[in-house]
Amino acid sequence: MTTHPRSPAAGLQGARCRGCSVAVYPADAACPRCGGPAEPAVLKSAGTLWTWTVQRYAPKSPPYQPPPGGFEPFAVGYVELDEGVRVAALLEVDDLDAIRIGMPLTVRAGDGVPRARPTTAAEENS
Ligand SMILES: [Zn+2]
């Protein structure tokens, strides 16, 4: 494995229950459904937007680090992965007005927080 674990292309590091196969995020040693042991696993990246909002003012710093160009409003939301677990993520969209609940998203591990971007048609068909 040459992929750096914090690379933007990396899948989300979570866990999966050995007994009932439920996905767990953030990773936990115990399954939230059956209490059985869960093992570290990279979660599948496909999901849909469950709910979202726009952060219109700079969060407290630290831990927030404003980008070099200064703060700009950004969208955050919960992405419901196809595996069933909801993940809080930054929404990487070009147009905040184009965000819709239920839109297909692809989630990646980001630098500190997961990031989600609209799923392309090619990815949807794969
Ligand atoms: Zn379980």
From TrEMBL:
ChsH2 C-terminal OB-fold domain span: 44-108
InterPro entries attached to this UniProt entry: ChsH2_C, NA-bd_OB-fold, Thioester_dehydratase-like
Entry-linked SUPFAM superfamilies: Nucleic acid-binding proteins
Pfam families: OB_ChsH2_C
Name of the molecule in the record: Zn-ribbon domain-containing OB-fold protein
Organism in which the protein naturally occurs: Streptomyces aureus
